[in-house]
Amino acid sequence: MIDFSVVICTYNGSSRLPEVLNSLKKQINTENIRWEILVIDNNSKDSTAKTIQEFQFQWLFPFSLKYVFEARQGLAFARQRAVEEANGQLIGFLDDDNLPISNWVASAYSFGREHPQAGAYGGKIIGDFEVNPPQDFRKLASFLALVERGEKAYIYERSQGILPPAAGLVIRKQVWCKNVPKQLFLVGRVGKSMLASEDLEAVSHIQNAGWEIWYNPDMLIYHKIPSWRLERNYLISLVRGIGLARHHIRMTRLQVWQRPIFILLYLFNDLRKVILYLIKYKGRVKSNVVVACEFEFFLSSLFSPLYLLQVENNKRTAKSPRSQEC
């Protein structure tokens, strides 16, 4: 029986994985915890498999290091495969650019034992920037999965409309298996598509089932952010993908009978934000990257229902017999 599984979902992470694995080798206060490391290779085209094999060949630690290949592209597929393959009652997700502090495993495991009603819980995520971020970057921090919500643990209330990202997220395996669909609507960024928020969709299902979602600041990780992830084009495409997925996340959090009413309310509110933002900032949308990203988020949120309707129609067409024959 394994108490805790650390899962690293990766795509072409050969150059990034060694630093993450080395940080996990240095975990402290885990003598009484039975844990494992599981790397999910999400259809990488680089030498990720070879990198893990080299680590396994030299592995002399009491906790195991396992490798699983998942051919279906998308983080949603990788995480679902991780849940199926993990042996731990608690599963902690790390991205291949996340560096946990030395007591991350111990803190994550003890928090789960102390809060049995927590179906999922995330920690504090601080950016490790290769270059200095732009002024007022804190307004965009959440889009890069950076989370700093103080030094006290608390519950993410439904009324807040906020949930933790998958980076550093811990879930209960039985809770995920019982409440999260094996096939989510959102699959994650694939190819040129930046449509994201598949992690929020999964956590929403857990919260909808009545489980508590917590923030635990003792679970600190550093998120390495290279310079290219602060470039204007990347940030805008990132924010656009999150905004375009917003309608689905909103609807997932509502009862079926509530959705027609809230669709109209959200539509009106998003349109109002777009108009007010244009009036307030005018020409700064083109000159200021933070302003441009905020505007893009409001705009893509406004068009999210229509965009997702098109995505759904495309999926149905792809599944039709005629489409398969072609």
What's this model, at a glance?
The protein has 12 helices and 9 strands. The N and C termini lie far apart (48 Å). The protein is globular, with a radius of gyration of 20 Å.
Number of strands: 9
How does CATH name the architecture of the largest domain?
Alpha-Beta Complex
Structural class category: alpha/beta
Radius of gyration: 20 Å
What overall form do the CA principal axes indicate? globular
CATH topology annotation of the largest domain: Spore Coat Polysaccharide Biosynthesis Protein SpsA, Chain A
Number of helices: 12
Helix content: 40-55%
Count of structural domains: 2
3D architecture notes:
With 326 residues, the protein is an alpha/beta fold. The chain has two domains: 2-228, Spore Coat Polysaccharide Biosynthesis Protein SpsA, Chain A, CATH 3.90.550; 236-316, no CATH class. It is built from twelve helices and nine strands. The protein has helices at 17-25, 48-57, 75-85, 104-114, 173-179, 198-208, 232-244, 246-252, 259-281, 284-287, 289-319, 321-325; strands at residues 2-10, 35-41, 64-69, 88-95, 98-100, 118-129, 154-155, 170-172, 212-225. Strands 1, 2, 3, 4, 5, 6, 7, 8 and 9 form a nine-stranded mixed sheet that branches. Helix 2 links the parallel strand 2 (35-41) and strand 3. Helix 9 packs antiparallel against helix 11 (289-319). The longest helix is centred in the last third of the chain and has 31 residues, at 289-319. It starts with a strand and ends with a helix. Residues 322-326 have low confidence and may be disordered.
